Amino acid sequence: MGKLITTLHKELLILMRDRAGLLMLFAMPAVLVFVVCLVQEKVLNPTTRVLVVDNDRGVIGRTISEGLASSTHIEVETRSETGGDGEAEAKRAVNRGDYQFSIVIPQGCTGFVRKQVETFVSMIVTSSSNGTARTLPPGENPGPGTITVYFDPSVQGGFRTAILSSLSKVLLCMEYQIKLDQLIALGKPGQAEAHDGIGKDDFNFVPWLGIQETYATEFGFITMPTSVQQNVPAWALFGIFFISVPMAGSLIKERESKTLDRLMSMPVSGFTLLAGKIGAYILVCGVQFSMIFMIGKFLLPLAGTQPFVMGTQPLAIALIVVATTMAATGYGIMLGTVARTYEQTAVLGPISIVIAAALGGVMVPVYLMPEPMQALSNISPFSWALDAFYDIFLRGGDLNAVVPEAVSLFTFSAITITIAWIAMKFKRLG
Amino acid sequence: MSVDKANPVLHVKSLTKCYGRSRIPAVTDLDFTVDKGEIFGFLGPNGAGKTTTISIMATLMKPTRGSVSICGVDIVKNPLRARKLISLVPQEIALYQELTGRENLHYFGTMYGLKGAALERKIAMALEFFDLGGVADHPVAHCSGGIKRRFNIACGILHDPVLVFLDEPTVGMDIHARNALLDQIQNLSARGSTILYTTHYMEEAEKICSRVLIMDKGVHLASGPPSELIEQSESCRNLGDLFLNLTGKHLAN
């Protein structure tokens, strides 16, 4: 045990004193995750910027603003103005491309609706009324009951229709709610109480019918990945796999300096030497991974992204981190044994890792790749590890869900170490 | 320390090594013994088979035929036991350059099975023996060539090995550093260590070795005390002349 711990300590000391290596292990993935998250933020998380000009300052403007703001994909800015040139400015802002659309709620809108409702309530006993929210044809003169929406011309027709239809729905609901409130509070005590004594408080307004949003993907996601949820684990994995380069380098250095010969002539097993080395790299990867996660959780939100969400499966995450580290160290050991010179690993290592990362969905997520590439991505250990993270973050999976991917990564490690062992025996025994 | 001829520390018998499917052996039927307390010169031009023989004796390689025993322990049958008795000090600076000399000593001492106070005592003794106390806490990478070479040997003697393989320990050193190191090697022998010493500097071998073995192309050519070997030859004034006579004056491959 003493030999194992001393080997682990020695490896950690060497790693800590290798500034170039530290830069590659920590600074590179940190910078990459930061930059790529911000770059891909607009691609993976398309947000719509909306300006609400609330000249009414009543319940209608407030409800519309709150409803829009509750969507994760809509960024709302609300301006409350009376008597100013808010509407003209909103039109200009949309025209400039500052917002995809703008909603102008006219002054007195809520009052207008309440007045209409009062009329409606007084009429209800004698005649029927059919006031509902509707969309005015362009050019029709708007009154206080008309909400104007300015669209950026580049906004697609389908999106425009969806916005107008949602807005109509919200307005309709509000109309009905105000009507109901008025009926209960003002004019119909006899009616309301006659119906088994039901009062206003008995209406909890919970919708009876609902809509469930699911994603029609073959990947079984229950939530779509944001730029942060995709890139934080992806680039953390990239950083982990990059440890195979310094690891291979350290093996070649030991071989070239004959330190390996010296060690092999000592009363210490190859397993102890290897386990000490792997143990040190597992610790380093743990620190590296935590650092990337912390960047995702605390630093990226400062730059305007959503924070990284770790979820509730730390054991599953730890298992995949260890399995990936084992795969990376196995690859490093194989590289360091098979390559003849340090220069070979310095070229072969990064190139092979970047190709495997691209194939495995680090740079462009696998679910955005064309089908043949998705099939091809299955050969990359990055793809297995990322899929495990999708299990945890996007499919609601637990420890059991990531076991198959962990087994694949451990198997990859075992195969690469076996290849290295055979190559070493072949070289040494002649 | 006097040489104990009755109990050879190293016994090499009919040692032959062929690499892969090659029919040309790198070492052929090599026989020799090294006695306790000796500094035994193992000499030969490049490609003579010295490195192959040392690799086999240090348990890094298995022989094709023949046997090697260290203090009666067969290195093929009991490599782990044999490894406790030996120390390989390669020609290269086989140290971790990023670590300090003391950290290297600590690491290699632990790998030899030393620990705790015994390890610290051995480190202190090795630092004193090789006069390395002043640079013990400097990273090896920042040390001079001579100091690196001394650390290289110091890391190999912490566990008081019975047999030390010193592979060209003075290569690339200036005359002052070389003389100082040769003195330390002789002191090491005087402390009881048996040393198998390889070098291309014949005057070094003549100066410090009690016996030498000269080989070429994997074959034993001559062995014995340098003075006797020189005396037996007709025209050789020193070991260098004898070496050239035996191995030829042409450039080796």
3D structure, described in words:
In chain A, 64% of the residues lie in helices and 5% in strands. Chain A is mainly α and 430 residues long. Chain A folds into 2 domains: 2-43 and 219-429, no CATH class; 48-187, abc type-2 transporter like fold. A 4-stranded mixed beta sheet of chain A has the order 2-1-3-4, with helices on both faces. In chain A, α3 links the parallel β1 and β2 (74-79). In chain A, α1 packs across α11 (270-299), α8 runs antiparallel to α15 (381-393) and α11 packs across α12 (314-338). Chain A is elongated. Chain A starts with a helix and ends with a helix. Mean pLDDT of chain A is 81; it is low at 192-198. Chain B is α/β, with parallel strands linked by helices. Chain B has a single domain, classed as Rossmann fold. Helix content of chain B is 36%, strand content 25%. Chain B has helices at residues 50-57, 79-85, 101-111, 116-129, 145-157, 175-190, 202-208, 226-232, 239-247, and strands at 4-17, 27-36, 39-43, 65-70, 73-74, 86-89, 163-167, 194-198, 211-216, 219-224. Chain B has a 6-stranded mixed beta sheet. A 4-stranded antiparallel beta sheet of chain B has the order 2-1-4-5, covered by helices on one side. The mean pLDDT of chain B is 90. The A-B interface holds A 2-3, 6-7, 10, 13-14, 17-18, 256-259, 261-268, 428-430 and B 17, 19-20, 55, 58-62, 80, 83-84, 86-99, 103, 106-108, 110-113, 115, 139, 155-156.
Radius of gyration of chain B: 18 Å
Q: Any idea how many domains of chain A?
A: 2
Mean pLDDT of chain A: 81
Looking at the structure, what is the overall shape of chain A?
elongated
Shape of chain B: globular
Strand line-up across the major sheet of chain A: 2-1-3-4
Sheet/helix structural class of chain B: alpha/beta
